[in-house]
Every structure is written in C-alpha cells, then in structure tokens.
Design goal:
This protein is an alpha/beta fold and about 300 residues long. The chain is about 35% helix and about 15% strand. Strands 2, 3, 4, 5, 6, 8, 9 and 10 form an eight-stranded mixed β-sheet that branches. It has a two-stranded parallel ribbon with strand order 1-7. The chain is globular, with a radius of gyration of 20 Å. It starts with a helix and ends with a helix.
Length: about 300
C-alpha cells in the first residue's frame, strides 16, 4: 500500500477543465469516473468516429482473454500493467487471481487522475499481491526498479501495454521503451499489446480526423500507427497465434467477431522458461525419511 499512498499524496491535482484520456475512456466503456468535459469531448469524438466505443469494449475484452490465457494456459503468475488507467470491471488482478489467487500484479501509471482511484486496484485476493506504482513509462528503468519491489524478475512476467504506446508519439522512443522493459524480464515473459491504427482495411481511416480533434481539445496527445510499425514493437519476440490482429479477433469468444481499428498481440520472449519447466516437471515421489518436502520442490524447479 505504501506506493499507492505516497503516490496519492504527491500526485498533481487533476485538471477537470480539460478532457482527459483516462476519464474519457472510462466514459466509453460505461464507467462513472468522468466529468462533464470528458463526456462532451467523448461524445464529439464518438460522433466523428462511431466505432470508438466498440474499440474501447474490444480492448477491454481482449485484456480479459489475454490475461486468462496467460494465467490458465501458460502458468504466468506475475503481471506488470503499464498505463493501468481507471478501475473498471475485470481489472488485471481480478482476471488473474480468479485463475490463480497467488498471482502478483503491479499497476503502473503517472496520470494524476489515477491515484485517487488506485485503492480499488489494490483489493486483490489475500493469497496474492497487488500494488500501484506512480511512474512514467518513458522512464522504463524506473518502472522496472520499482516493480521489482513486488515482482520477482527472475521469473516470467506478463508485461501489459494496452493503449499506452500510442501516447508515445515518437516511434523510435516507443520501440526503445518496449526493448528495455522486455530486456529486464526473463525468457518466458510475455508482452501483451494493443495499439490504435489508421489502416483503412480495419476501419481506421476515421481515426485521423478523430485524433486531430482529440489533440486539439484533450490530453494527452495521441497517435495511431500502421500495422507494420506496430509489428516492430514485437521484434525479437514470438507472437502467440493468431499473431498481430485486430484485438477483437485475438482468440475471440465469438467466431463472428468483427475487426476494430485497434491491433492486439501477445508475444513471448524466447528461451527456456522457468514457469514452463516447473509445469512440465513430474510429480516428485514421496520424500525419503529425513528429507524435507521443500527440498524436493527446489530440485524440480532447478
């Protein structure tokens, strides 16, 4: 709780006179943590780009499917959620700890809107851990250093970057952020990514005008990118099937899911994974007299 408490005490007072992404996004997904200016700008953007509400819902549903897949099928027990935003239904810790109550989750954001709501992100299962870190993704070394107080960076971590790199306007800087954070976590770790696009074939052409309006009337400034540039964020990683696709079509619950102009991917850092090794280890035999069971477990994991 200490990170959240200090963040709340030291955070800048949110400016409620200008529409802000965290609150507008909360408005689009049906939350209640927004102000009149957020609703006004949100409605205007939705009028220019009606699919934006579908994008917001699809992004949230992708989070659920991706975290569920990682926790249930890949044995991931640690999650670093960058640009966590405001709490809503099915936060990362809710999804992960339903599968594995011992999961550890660190939320990271430097948005002055978020700390006041962060306590809702810290109400996880008693077996697990949830924490909040006030840090800027543009300082990845600080993010990693502070996350390491809660996460064991010698074991696989799912790094979540949902709708965050679109606020890093320089593409080279965005790639470097991904590279440095993924370099700090071990093989078997996973990058979970979503990013808006201008690509017309998935309905992104209207994003151009909508984002121009946003950048003139709201904060922080945003950009879309083409599929090829978004794919470059996955360099050196191994995408999980079906690869980089509209996030609504990444392992959808419904076979007829329509595309949205927001790409999503889950990609694994290659190499031997301690998590996978431990899952493949056969059940040890009953310990011999005088042998502590914990030593048998340690042998299996090493």
């Amino acid at each position: 709780m200490s990170d959240q408490d200090s963040a709340t005490a030291g955070a800048a007072r949110p400016d409620t006179s200008v529409a802000h992404n965290a609150r507008v996004w909360n408005f689009w997904i049906g939350g209640d943590a927004h102000h009149e200016v957020d609703r006004r700008v949100g409605e205007q953007v939705a009028g220019m780009f009606p699919v934006i509400r579908d994008v917001a819902r699809a992004d949230r549903e992708f989070l659920v499917r991706a975290v569920r897949h990682l926790a249930a099928e890949r044995g991931i027990r640690q999650f670093l959620d960058l640009g966590a935003g405001l709490p809503a239904a099915d936060n990362t810790h809710d999804i992960a700890q339903r599968v594995a109550p011992e999961s550890r989750i660190v939320y990271v954001d430097n948005d002055p809107v978020v700390p006041a709501h962060a306590r809702a992100l810290l109400t996880g299962s008693p077996e697990g851990v949830t924490d909040y870190v006030d840090a800027d993704v543009r300082d990845p070394d600080a993010v990693v250093r502070r996350a390491a107080k809660t996460l064991d960076l010698d074991r696989p971590v799912a790094v979540l970057m949902l709708g965050i790199l679109n606020f890093v306007l320089d593409g080279a800087e965005a790639r470097e952020i991904v590279r440095r954070i993924m370099a700090a976590v071990p093989s078997g770790s996973v990058l979970v990514l979503t990013h808006p696009t201008f690509d017309a074939e998935v309905g992104g052409a209207g994003n151009v005008t909508a984002m121009e309006f946003w950048n003139a009337h709201a904060t922080p400034p945003i950009t879309g990118r083409g599929r090829a540039e978004i794919a470059s964020f996955l360099d050196g990683l191994e995408p999980v099937e079906p690869g980089l696709v509209p996030c609504s079509q990444w392992r959808p619950d419904a076979a007829d899911a329509l595309p949205v102009p927001q790409f999503g991917a889950v990609a694994v850092k290659p190499g031997a994974s301690p998590t996978h090794a431990s899952r493949m280890c056969p059940s040890p035999p009953a310990p011999a007299a005088g042998t502590h069971p914990e030593s048998m477990i340690k042998q299996c994991l090493t």
